[in-house]
Specification:
The protein is α+β, with helices and mostly antiparallel strands and about 850 residues long. Among the domains are: about 100 residues, Alpha-Beta Plaits, CATH 3.30.70; about 130 residues, Alpha-Beta Plaits (2-Layer Sandwich), CATH 3.30.70; about 350 residues, no CATH class. About 60% of the residues lie in helices and about 5% in strands. It has 24 helices and 11 strands. The strands form 3 sheets. Strands 1, 2, 9, 10 and 11 form a 5-stranded antiparallel sheet that branches. The protein has a 4-stranded antiparallel sheet with strand order 4-7-3-8, sandwiched between helices. A hairpin with a 6-residue loop joins strand 5 and strand 6. Helix 17 packs antiparallel against helix 22 and helix 18 packs parallel to helix 21. The chain starts with a helix and ends with a helix. Essential component of the vacuolar proton pump (V-ATPase), a multimeric enzyme that catalyzes the translocation of protons across the membranes. Required for assembly and activity of the V-ATPase. GO terms for molecular function: ATPase binding; proton-transporting ATPase activity, rotational mechanism. InterPro entries: V-ATPase_116kDa_su, V-type_ATPase_116kDa_su_euka. Pfam families: V_ATPase_I. This is V-type proton ATPase subunit a.
Length: about 850
């Protein structure tokens, strides 16, 4: 049956490769993706304390890391310039080892060229910034020099004057003032002004003006705003002090001629140099763009090649070195049906290198092999749901195939609405229809990747929700009257005048025809005042029925591929315990549905008023309490059938007997088998009671402490007995979530859409447009997305009840093959997270 119903058989093999063909053979196995290598490097076996970086091919791995670093640098530069990277979807083969030298030389050349271009561009931008700042200084300081002789007076907008040193009358005369001009960040001007005032004690004269357009910082590429300043002072001491303050605030100082003619001549020279720099900068940017565009065409192909080379050498580092025969020895897990395919891949690898053929030997397995389930695009998502509980043990039953039906069905019981199911089905069908273009398109959104990965689950959940919506006769909280209701009331004037509410009585032939609705609920129940009472009883009972059927199905699955000891000591008492209590509970529900009803020809004792409560009946059954017999032929009876009391007592006794059966039987047989093994000196732990299938690995004989076995079996028994009760109650979430979903949909209709439908006139038409948009948005966001996620999580929990707690051990480890596809996917996801 392959991996559809259980994991595939996996063999441990030993692989002998020549040094010349090891690289090509591992490359072919990576393309195949069917081999999981074990780490048998003799370095770690002989000396575990030796660092793993001392393996044979660690230098090649480091070279790959260096190439990967250079490619990431190129990718950052390409994304910085917003250059689209071409992704043709091609998957190049792993290059030969001799091609690594060409790749390294090419990457080194590109990196050096790009770094040189970037450094030149940064130097040119820095020079351009300095000339631009100097141009603004020459332009804006002309006004300052015109006012220098006054050093006082009111200043125009943007200028600030601190003070002027007051000289005595005898010292008045021409004053020779020095000055310093420069540029400073605009946000530092206020603190710069205060520092000048305090350090120079008001003996300086500061003028500043803002530069309107932002300037580009050549180091960071950010746009910054700056201001031009000029400081007038007298004396060398103030000059030194001013310059130190400017350096402390990282202000850039520029030479500014005092004579107007010199300033005009310098301004013309600055303008000429700026024009030349613009030309050189544009040429530099064009050259850089051409280099990056050329690299963007091949970047993904280069990255795939480097990742493949690195993966191959990582695998080769796990091989054992055979120095005598100049070869490599590897151990690997291979699925038995694919042994021939692996042989063909090894033959192709040796043909490429022209060396001796590789040798593949199958070894006897002592340890448990990894668990391998072969999946496709449809079953992969369901297998992922099962693996979330834990990886199955080797050759254990695989419940993923049953989950394809049970998971969407249980989801649909909680999400039963035809309208909401149509929305979910259309979304899933769109993703399946656009599967190829959407899978090729790389999307960084993790939420979208989760939705797309579970597209088939969403499609089935939507389809099953449409079915349960038809059964519930619920479409956006409304019902469909396709076949006509079986309820009718003969209305007349007196009926309407005398009755505020009319109760429908199924016993009245003039109100109920007795013909059930062909499929689902009668549409009239959507308008009934006691709709909640009816749906509560109906959905609660079907939740218990489906829950018990689901749990019994999980127990029955444990019968397949199981050992005889587990069947005798666990499966049989579990089936009897569940059947005598909970399966019987579901039978009582069906008996009550079938035997009790309304109608003229129904006896009084079989009317709904005489139907005993199932809950009280089940509680009295467990407590072994009886009822008083009916006193007359027309009086109500506490029993649903003859002999019910004695049958229930017998089933409770059988259920109680099953508890010590599960608790003691298996430890007893294990103890007896251990004694027999001790007397004979051979055999396994469980002796003749264990029938190990031929596909299971042969475990070495080992002794178990009986106290440990008793404790483990006691925990297992208590968990099953108590879990049977708690899990049965846990399935009531099917009823609770289904009722909550229906009520929330009804509230949304009544409080939002009904407002627009009840508004008349032109105003109602305009209001309906916006109200419908709000209702549709809330329906999709709350009822489909949020309620759908809630139902999904509860369904996941209920499947843990069925599989994990009943037979699914989940104590194995996954088969992780050496596959280029999985390695590339993991690397791309890492790159996406880094972005």
């Amino acid at each position: 049956m392959g991996s559809l119903f259980r994991s595939e058989e996996v063999a441990l093999c030993q692989l002998f490769l020549q040094s010349e063909s090891a690289y090509t053979c591992v490359s072919e196995l990576g393309e195949l993706g069917l081999v999981q290598f074990r780490d048998v490097s003799n370095i770690l076996i002989l000396n575990p304390d030796v660092n793993a970086f001392q393996r044979k091919f660690v230098n090649e791995v480091r070279r790959c890391d260096e190439m990967e670093r250079k490619l990431r640098y190129l990718e950052r530069e390409i994304r910085r310039d917003a250059i689209p990277m071409q992704d043709t979807g091609d998957n190049p083969e792993a290059p030969m080892p001799r091609e690594m030298i060409d790749l390294e030389a090419n990457f080194e050349k590109l990196e050096n060229e790009l770094k040189e271009v970037n450094s030149n561009a940064e130097a040119l931008k820095r020079n351009y910034l300095e000339l631009t700042e100097l141009r603004h200084i020459l332009k804006k300081t002309q006004v300052f020099f015109d006012e220098r002789d006054g050093c006082a007076g009111n200043l125009d907008g943007g200028s600030v004057s601190l003070t002027q040193n007051l000289l005595p009358d005898e010292a008045k005369g021409p004053i020779q003032l020095g000055f310093v001009a420069g540029v400073i960040l605009r946000e530092r001007v206020a603190s710069f002004e205060r520092m000048l005032w305090r350090a120079c004690r008001g003996n300086v004269f500061l003028r500043q003006a803002q530069i309107e357009e932002p300037l580009e910082d050549p180091a960071t590429g950010e746009q910054v705003y700056k201001s031009v300043f000029i400081i007038f002072f007298q004396g060398e001491q103030l000059k030194l002090r001013v310059k130190k303050i400017c350096e402390g605030f990282r202000a850039t100082m520029y030479p500014c001629p005092e004579a107007p003619a010199d300033r005009r001549e310098m301004a013309m020279g600055v303008k000429t140099r700026l024009d030349d720099l613009n030309t050189v900068l544009s040429q530099t940017q064009d050259h850089r763009h051409r280099v990056l565009v050329s690299a963007a065409r091949n970047l993904r192909s280069w990255m795939l090649k480097v990742w493949k080379i690195k993966a191959i050498y990582h695998s080769l580092n796990m091989f054992n070195i055979d120095t005598i025969q100049n070869g490599l020895i590897a151990e690997c897990w291979i699925p038995v049906p694919d042994l021939e395919t692996v042989q063909l891949a090894l033959r192709r690898g040796t043909e490429k290198s022209g060396s001796l053929p590789a040798i593949l030997n199958r070894l006897s397995c002592v340890e448990s092999p990894p668990t391998f389930h072969r999946t496709n695009k449809f079953t992969r998502a369901f297998q992922g749901l099962i693996d979330s509980y834990g990886v199955a043990s080797y050759r254990e039953m695989n419940p993923a195939v049953y989950t394809i039906i049970t998971f969407p069905f249980l989801f649909a019981i909680m999400f039963g609405d035809l309208g909401h199911g149509i929305i979910m089905t259309l979304f899933g069908a769109w993703m399946v229809w656009k599967e190829k273009p959407l899978s090729v398109k790389k999307v960084d959104s993790e939420i979208w990747n989760i939705f797309f990965g579970g597209r088939y689950i969403i499609l089935l959940m939507g389809t099953f929700s449409m079915y349960t919506g038809i059964i519930y006769n619920d479409v956006f909280s409304k019902s469909l009257n396709l076949f006509g209701s079986s309820w009718h009331v003969p209305f007349n004037e007196s009926t309407i005048r005398d009755n505020r509410e009319i109760m429908l009585d199924p016993k009245q032939p003039d109100q109920y025809e007795g013909t059930p609705y062909p499929i689902g609920l009668d549409p009239l129940w959507q308008l009934a005042a006691n709709k909640i009472n009816f749906l509560n009883s109906y959905k609660m009972k079907i939740s218990i029925i489906f829950g018990i059927v689901h749990m019994m199905f999980g127990i029955i699955l444990s019968l397949f591929f199981n050992r005889r000891l587990n069947v005798l000591c666990e499966f049989i008492p579990q089936v009897l315990f569940m059947s005598c209590l909970f399966v019987y509970l579901t039978l009582l529900v069906f008996i009550k549905w079938v035997n009790y009803g309304a109608g003229e020809d129904v006896p009084l004792v079989l009317t709904p008023g005489c139907a005993p409560s199932i809950l009280i009946t089940f509680i009295n059954m467990v407590l072994m309490k009886g009822y008083e017999e009916a006193k007359g032929p027309n009086s109500c009876s506490a029993y649903m059938y003859d002999g019910q009391f004695y049958l229930q007592r017998m089933m409770v006794v059988v259920a109680v007997i099953c508890v010590p059966w599960m608790l003691v039987a298996k430890p007893y047989f294990l103890y007896r088998a251990s004694k027999q093994r001790a007397m004979l000196g051979t055999g396994g732990v469980e002796g003749a009671m264990e029938e190990t299938p031929s596909t299971m690995p042969v475990q070495p004989a080992e002794d178990h402490d009986m106290s440990e076995i008793l404790i483990h079996q006691g925990i297992h028994t208590i968990e099953f007995v108590l879990g049977s009760v708690s899990h049965t109650a846990s399935y009531l979430r099917l009823w609770a979530l289904s009722l909550a979903h229906a009520q929330l949909s009804e509230v949304l209709w009544g409080m939002v859409l009904r407002i627009g439908l009840s508004t008349a006139g032109t105003t109602g038409g305009f209001a309906m447009y916006f109200i419908f948009a709000a209702w549709a948005t809330l329906t999709v966001v709350i009822l489909v997305l949020m309620e759908g996620l809630s139902a999904f999580l509860h369904t996941l929990r209920l499947h843990w009840v069925e599989f994990q707690s009943k037979f699914y051990e989940g104590q194995g480890y996954a088969f992780v093959p050496f596959s280029f596809d999985s390695i590339l996917e993991a690397n791309e996801s890492t790159v996406t997270e880094a972005k």
